[in-house]
Automatic annotation (TrEMBL):
Keyword tRNA processing set for record: no
Record-given protein name: UTP--glucose-1-phosphate uridylyltransferase
Domain Nucleotidyl transferase span(s) in chain numbering: 5-264
Organism taxonomic ancestry: Bacteria, Pseudomonadati, Nitrospinota/Tectimicrobiota group, Candidatus Tectimicrobiota
Family: Belongs to the UDPGP type 2 family.
Molecular functions per Gene Ontology: UTP:glucose-1-phosphate uridylyltransferase activity
Stored PANTHER family: UTP--GLUCOSE-1-PHOSPHATE URIDYLYLTRANSFERASE (PTHR43197)
Species assigned in the record: Tectimicrobiota bacterium
Length: 294
């Protein structure tokens, strides 16, 4: 069975970006001129998926508004003769079919995915996290879907990270199966660098079989009361094969301040309109003059 639906969990609290995220969803923070979540929706569409299920929570209405038709804005832009902007705004609402499911309490990523169960039904589906923005020739999700078509099992996107950073990620114990492809023998959440089974970290792109819902239901909350996807995946490993795929492309951890800044600089440098003048600005920047405040 092919993949036709993607779940985008966006109900987290975004505490790393407070106070910016007090009333504005983290997913709506702009990378140059588009909110983070739009990059992820564009990747989903470019991968050939036509139905997106966004998991939202309290204070996340701006996400729904962003992907909805903005009649007044379009009228105003038409009146002012700004037809190119009308096109830009209209394209967003015509992009793909959206469905919203509310996670009433932020009880973890696993729980957020479980909220999509009714809408997904009994079919394999994709999960994309807006924290990870990926620049690649072939969309990262499409790369995973290609692997899925051959192997018909859950696939986790992984990336090699420096050993001293493995404790920020879920890490796989791999058995090499082919070019960039591994069978997942085990998963360890946030391991100590000297205990990590590898340097292959799980990032925010997944293809999951529907059996994951049953495993999430059976997963106990962690010490913070959250139901973690990694724990459910460990349960799934007992009954199904899971693969990891080392995707091709550059990932930006836009859920952290430093990663967000790196993404902003690099996307701005690649921007057809801004790139050249931004590059000149950076080249002329007097770094000595700019010392940290405080
Ligand atoms: P994070 O671990 O990045 O948490 O969630 P967060 O709340 O978004 O951000 P910080 O760490 O407090 O700054 C990973 C993904 O899972 C979603 C988030 O929206 C994000 O896409 N998530 C997390 C939910 O949808 N619900 C939850 O209960 C937790």
């Amino acid at each position: 069975m092919g993949i036709s639906k993607a779940v985008l969990p966006a109900a987290g609290l975004g505490t790393r970006f407070l106070p910016a995220t007090k009333s504005c969803p983290k997913e709506m923070l702009p990378l140059v001129d588009k909110p983070l979540i739009q990059y992820v929706v564009e990747e989903t569409k470019a991968s050939g998926i036509r139905e997106v299920i966004i998991i939202t929570g309290r204070g996340k209405n701006a996400i729904e508004d962003h992907f909805d038709v903005s009649f007044e804005l379009e009228q105003l832009l038409v009146q002012r003769g700004k037809n190119d902007l009308v096109e830009t705004v209209r394209k967003i609402s015509n992009m793909i079919s959206f469905c919203y499911v509310r996670q009433r309490e932020a009880l973890g990523l696993g729980h957020a995915i479980l909220c999509a169960r009714q809408v997904v039904g009994h079919e394999p589906f994709a999960v994309l996290l807006g924290d990870d923005i990926i620049h690649s020739e072939v969309p990262c999700l499409r790369q995973l879907m290609n692997v899925y078509e051959r192997h018909q099992c859950s696939i986790l996107a992984v990336e090699r990270v420096p050993r001293n950073q493995v404790s920020n990620y879920g890490v796989v114990a791999p058995r090499k199966m082919g070019d960039r492809l591994y069978q997942v023998l085990d998963l360890v959440e946030k391991p100590d660098p000297d205990r990590a089974p590898s340097d292959l970290a799980i990032i925010g792109r997944y293809i999951l079989t529907p059996e994951i819902f049953r495993e999430i239901e059976d997963t106990q909350p962690d010490s913070k009361g959250e139901i973690q996807l990694t724990d459910a995946l460990r349960l799934l490993l007992k009954s199904q094969t899971v693969y990891a795929y080392e995707f091709e492309g550059t990932r930006y951890d836009a859920g952290s301040k430093l990663g967000f800044l790196k993404a902003t600089v690099e996307f701005a440098l690649r921007d057809p309109e801004l790139g050249e003048s931004f590059r000149s600005y950076l080249e002329e920047l007097d770094l000595e003059r700019l010392q940290p405040l405080g």
